[in-house]
């Protein structure tokens, strides 16, 4: 199924490729080079697993929960620059016209942050790329202690790895349900998760992943009572397999099952 979804995805990219510049069509497939986690498709008949492909990141949106199921992106040094946070939180105008659009005020006075999945800080090479991360389809309600604490610390750590000569493939999202905001239109996840693949910067990335490639996975509580701002992100590490069991998604599915079963079963200890 995952293979089929990817072929469908590639076909959609092929269909839209005349509409976008050469650079853009390269980055469309870039973010999902390691595989698509679920069989998301860009048709309104699949409202709970609606594929949204952007040059900066790719996501599966759920019309019912009002948040992404997962967001996927690649980061290497070419994405990093001097651009400051755009802070232009806004509804995603590319959602189907008849669907409710979660907007910049939807999270107001909820006690939850508008938490970026693909971070603003991972897209600082151009104004347009940074601004793209502020659409509400890239947000989930995040407890401040999660978002501003260990979650943010892990984001910073990832960018440090890039500055040290690595490139990363990242998936993240929320899981579970602890409440609603915006009159029930947005669900607050019980926890947040992230899976990261780390390789040396280079070309032909798929061919360079081995059984011993480093992966980092975390599951963090999304309630202020259960997580502290100064908690070490490392204390939330689990195996990729644990996140796959929790979510039902298959990460890094473009790699052989032998390679996946090796690097997905271990917990990062670096
Ligand atoms: Mn954040
Ligand atoms: Mn997998």
Largest sheet: 7 strands, antiparallel
* Multimeric organization: single chain
CATH class: Alpha Beta
> Helix- and strand-based class?
alpha+beta
User: Which ligands does the model contain, each kind named once?
Assistant: manganese (II) ion
| Unreliable stretches covering 5 or more consecutive residues | 13-25
End-to-end separation in angstroms reads 34 Å
Helix content: 10-25%
Please give the number of β-strands. Answer: 11
Count of discrete structural domains: 1
Beta percentage is 15-25%
Provide the CATH superfamily. Extracellular Endonuclease, subunit A
Instruction: Give the overall shape.
Output: globular
Helix count?
7
CATH topology: Extracellular Endonuclease, Chain A
CATH architecture: 3-Layer(aba) Sandwich
Radius of gyration: 17 Å
Order of helices and strands: HHEEEEHEHHEEEEEEHH
Instruction: Provide the residue-averaged pLDDT.
Output: 92
Strand order of the largest sheet: 1-2-3-6-9-10-11
How would you characterize the overall build of this protein?
The chain has about 270 residues and is an alpha+beta fold. The protein has a single domain, classed as 3-Layer(aba) Sandwich (Extracellular Endonuclease, Chain A), CATH 3.40.570.10. About 25% of the residues lie in helices and about 25% in strands. The chain is built from 7 helices and 11 strands. The protein has a 7-stranded antiparallel sheet with strand order 1-2-3-6-9-10-11. Strands 4-5 form a two-stranded antiparallel sheet. β2 (about 60) and β3 form a beta hairpin. It is globular, with a radius of gyration of 17 Å. The relative contact order is 0.14. Mean pLDDT is about 90; it is low at about 15-25. One manganese (II) ion (MN) binds next to β4.
């Amino acid at each position: 199924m995952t293979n089929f979804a990817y072929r469908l995805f590639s076909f959609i990219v092929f269909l839209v490729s005349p509409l976008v510049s050469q650079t853009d069509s390269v980055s469309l497939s870039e973010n999902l080079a390691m595989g698509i986690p679920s069989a998301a498709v860009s048709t309104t008949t699949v409202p709970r697993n609606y594929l949204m492909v952007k040059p900066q990141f790719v996501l599966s949106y759920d019309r019912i929960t009002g948040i992404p199921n997962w967001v996927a992106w690649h980061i290497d040094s070419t994405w990093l620059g001097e651009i400051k946070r755009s802070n232009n939180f806004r509804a995603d105008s590319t959602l189907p016209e008849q669907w409710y659009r979660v907007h910049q005020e939807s999270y107001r006075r909820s006690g939850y942050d508008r938490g970026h999945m693909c971070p603003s800080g991972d897209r600082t090479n151009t104004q347009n790329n940074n601004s793209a991360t502020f659409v509400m389809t890239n947000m989930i309600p995040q407890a401040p202690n999660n978002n501003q604490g260990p979650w943010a610390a892990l984001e910073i750590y990832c960018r440090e790895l890039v500055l040290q000569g690595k490139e990363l493939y990242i998936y993240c999202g929320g899981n579970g349900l602890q409440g609603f905001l915006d009159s029930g239109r947005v669900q607050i996840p019980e926890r947040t998760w992230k899976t990261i693949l780390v390789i040396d910067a280079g070309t032909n990335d798929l061919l360079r992943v081995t059984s011993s490639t480093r992966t980092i996975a975390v599951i963090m509580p999304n309630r202020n009572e259960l997580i502290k701002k100064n908690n070490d992100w490392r204390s939330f590490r689990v195996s990729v397999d644990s996140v796959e069991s929790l979510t039902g998604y298959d990460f890094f599915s473009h790699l052989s099952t032998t390679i996946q079963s090796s690097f997905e079963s271990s917990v990062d200890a670096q």
